[in-house]
Amino acid sequence: MKSRESLVRLKEFQVKEKRRQLAQLQLMMSEFERMSKELESQIAVEEKKSGITDPNHFAYPTFAKAARQRSDNLQVSIRELKVQQDAAELALEEAEAEYSKAAALEERDNAVRMRA
Q1: pLDDT band with cut points at 50, 70 and 90 for residue 79
Q2: 99: buried, middle or exposed (CB in 10 Å: 19+, 13-18, 0-12)?
Q3: Fewer CB within 10 Å: N-end or C-end of the chain?
């Protein structure tokens, strides 16, 4: 029955690893959102300082243009991470289900051993 115990420990490890990966994705997304908001506020300050809010204007501040591009890139990254997060949540659900099955089998085996 050692193999069942090993299987349960393996499944438990996989669940913990999936949770860690999911938390890491969520942390990255929140950090990117924070950075994007910070860039947006810097863009607003730069536009207010120059008095030009049209990015296509020839005198639009170069810093604001570069910051807007970085902010747009962060938004794309956030959307890509959201897709990864959805996949990670699905993988976590599957891992939890497998862990539950393995734990139930181990409990059943332990109950059989106790009766014998």
Answers
A1: very high
A2: buried
A3: C
Percent of the chain scored above 70 by pLDDT? 97
At 43-78, the pLDDT tens digits run: 999 999 999 999 999 999 999 999 999 999 999 999
The predicted model scores a pTM of: 0.81
Tokens of 65: 């243009």
User: What is the SS3 assignment for the chain?
Assistant: CHHHHHHHHHHHHHHHHHHHHHHHHHHHHHHHHHHHHHHHHHHHHHHHHHCCCCCCCCCCCHHHHHHHHHHHHHHHHHHHHHHHHHHHHHHHHHHHHHHHHHHHHHHHHHHHHHHC
Using alpha carbons, select from 84, 76, 74, 71 the residue that is nearest to residue 24: 84
With beta carbons less than 8 A apart as the criterion, state whether 43 and 68 touch: yes
